[in-house]
Structures are given as structure tokens and as C-alpha cells.
Design a protein that fits this description.
106 residues; alpha+beta; 2 strands; globular
Amino acid sequence: MQKENKTTQEMEEAGVDMSGHQPKLIKEIPNELDILITMGCNVTCPYIPNKHAEDWGIEDPSGKGIEAFRKTRDEIREKTEELLKRIKAGLLKDSQQKPFIDPSLS
């Protein structure tokens, strides 16, 4: 599986070395996740057991110019930062309404 060149380009512009990263196949994802984030992109994702799921509804930049990839990268960054804030503040709940608390984030 090959990464799209624009994805690699815009991530490296942001200081992220993509040389050791490869897309994962569904079978490589753990059988159950604490938090599952889907991007939207107008596709239906397979069911993966999880304690909390969110769909971020991000537009797929495939086939578009580099600016669309940069916009997607920045949107994912913002949403990730917001997710971490919610986790740290105890606002994100699992399926049993217990807050996710990760000591490594404190």
C-alpha cells in the first residue's frame, strides 16, 4: 500500500517525518479500541469494537491540490488537540459513561 505523495509532502512541511509510516490494513488494527476516530470522507467504515467513537466528517482531499491536503492536515490537528483537551478534562466518556483518564497525558 502506498501513501499519496501529497499526504507525505504536506506532513513533512509540518515537520512530521513520514518515512517510517505506512497505512494499516483493517486486520492490523486491534480487536477492540478505547477510542475510535473515523474521518468521514463519505465512506462507510467497518465495525471495530470500541469504548468511544467519533466521526469527524473530514472531506477527503484525494484528487485535489496540495492546499486541500494542508487544510485536511490542519483540521485533523485541531480536532486531535481538542480531543486531548476533552480527555484531560475528563469530558470524554466511555460506553459506560466513565471518563477516560490517561495518566501519561497529565
